[in-house]
């Protein structure tokens, strides 16, 4: 067994956030949020690693409940959602929360200094849990644009509408975004607009330790990551682009490999570290593809851009898009700057 004992100087996530907030006042508020998010991720990591054992896989209860996505909610989705809501609620810093597992944004009554809005996918890729394939939590933090505290006599619908407006913000408004990947190791990667850092959970001390400082996406990679089963329905330009990089006829002349986990967090994390391009295109059947803008594509785009990569719908920068609905989908391509630029040119 690995008997490495971290010296007391190990850069834990807690210490990292303390140092960041000492350097920059504005990070002080985020410190409490990151502290609660890392607790939630440790709890979810624990559940995911024991899912098969504690029989948390499979459908929710007997009749099964169905979320707004029309998908059977698996127990772990629901529990992960509850864990994140509870951990975030008690920071007192959040006025409203939007989640893939919530039909509508949730007002947070405990908010006494509500300044932030959290959006998250509590357990993305959870359909892979039964096969022990990597899954992840994706989160984004916005500042509230307008007060949506619920005063006693406030019109609740009015407050709810204000809160909805607080969640419908473009990726450019994100003040922090990140993901926690539950895989061969548990890795929390996030940005506060000042670069991207990755922390690996060391179970021997129960702390996230800095393992990937200042992540930079390689300018170009040799991996493409799409669900090619959908290619008959793709835009011709995209079909031609993929054929070109497969046969070494793309700009770099390299023959690309295909890697597709079918779990966004795993595919994005590999793209962030190894380079290349990940995408979930729109097609004839689903013009906006499958990924959700608010709590999947936008937070991941913030991270990729902060790491020197690019993220686009194929026509425009994802971070520019103003959401109209909480659960709206968006065609998504992200990864190495040169690969994404080459793709965009092929779609024109
Ligand atoms: P497909 C998982 O269900 C998910 O939302 C993302 O994590 C993943 O990238 C995508 O869907 C996979 O979708 O249609 O290729 O199975």
UniProtKB/TrEMBL annotation:
Biological processes annotated in GO: fructose 1,6-bisphosphate metabolic process; fructose 6-phosphate metabolic process; fructose metabolic process; gluconeogenesis; sucrose biosynthetic process
Catalysed reaction equations from the record: beta-D-fructose 1,6-bisphosphate + H2O = beta-D-fructose 6-phosphate + phosphate
Domain Fructose-1-6-bisphosphatase class I N-terminal as annotated: residue spans: 11-213
Keyword set, alphabetical order: Carbohydrate metabolism, Hydrolase, Magnesium, Metal-binding, Signal
Gene3D superfamilies reported for this sequence: 3.40.190.80, Fructose-1,6-Bisphosphatase, subunit A, domain 1
Gene Ontology MF term list: fructose 1,6-bisphosphate 1-phosphatase activity; metal ion binding
Required cofactor(s): Mg(2+)
Keyword Hydrolase attributed: yes
InterPro entries per record: FBPase_C_dom, FBPase_class-1, FBPase_N, FBPtase, Fructose_bisphosphatase_AS
Subunit text: Homotetramer.
Family (UniProt): Belongs to the FBPase class 1 family.
HAMAP family linked: FBPase_class1
Name of the protein in its database record: fructose-bisphosphatase
